[in-house]
Request: fold
Amino acid sequence: MQTVLVLFGGVSPEHAVSLVSAEAVLRNLNKENRRVLPVGITLSGKWMLFGGDDYADIAADKWEDNPANRTAFLSPERGAGLCIFGENGVETVPVDVIFPVLHGENGEDGSIQGLFQLSGIPYAGCHVCAAAASMDKSVTKLIAATTGVRQAEWLTLCRADFRRDADAMCIKITEKFAFPVFIKPCSTGSSVGVSKVKTAAELLPALENAFKYDSKILAEEFINGREIEVAVLGNEEPKAATAGEIDAGAEFYDYETKYVTSTSQAYIPARISSELNAQVREWAVKVYSALGCAGLSRVDFFVTRDTNEIVFNEINTLPGFTPISMYPKMWAAEGVPFAELLDRVIALALEG
Reply:
């Protein structure tokens, strides 16, 4: 019997997205010869073993009040596994593998991976260094530059400099970029805190908003292109699925468009030539490998509308597993259904 710890929620701006991903993972995970331990982390940081049997309560954010929940945490002591508190004291349950369904801060940035590493338990996804480097967009850009793939021009900006002289920062941005320009926190996902700035008057509010989420942000050149995503799976010999495309149906593919409204449209395969599809998949694997990724990641690009040039955008080391998420959809298009994909991710975790 294999024991799988599925960890969800988290102290993160992307907490709500994690809950929806977790519901889909738990519902589709093959339970044969497996014991599944669904453990949630509240926004305040409390860990609980979910005692309910209706995973829809997790997606609906109703899981925390289930009377069958028990306080639980992952011990950093090797071999201890999950510590579960009950009326008769603390029960320790050995865990064979951890499947983190955590997005963004404290879940995708190497923090929780450090705890997994200390515990000695195999876990799905990137290890500490790759997770941290992939989460920080400024570090990602520096490493991705070694592959030779084109990227949007960027400036890395710090909150301390903004507080010291916000006007000077605005001038620095306008001297380097034509409008529109993107302002992004370096270490958030799901487009949290991201703004597309069209005029100088919009720049200061966009900077203020981005610095709410991170002490380091990017100002980035606007690329007029199709939004192309590639699902990568594997450890030492990663493979890429057929590329997909997102038509945001909005100014850009922001949080609202991803998870709230229904304006976006997905195309799998992407509406690009077979030659470009093959090339973008090749670049996805190169970026993935350069960053030292393992298990799974979604690598995002633009393909410029005028010249069909591939431009690397960013990488997501714990991509969404919601019903509308592109990562499982792209593998489904390759003939790998959701349940089998989860089995493969777990197998890669156990492989090391």
About this structure: The CA atoms of residues 109 and 132 lie 4 Å apart. The chain has a mean pLDDT of 93.
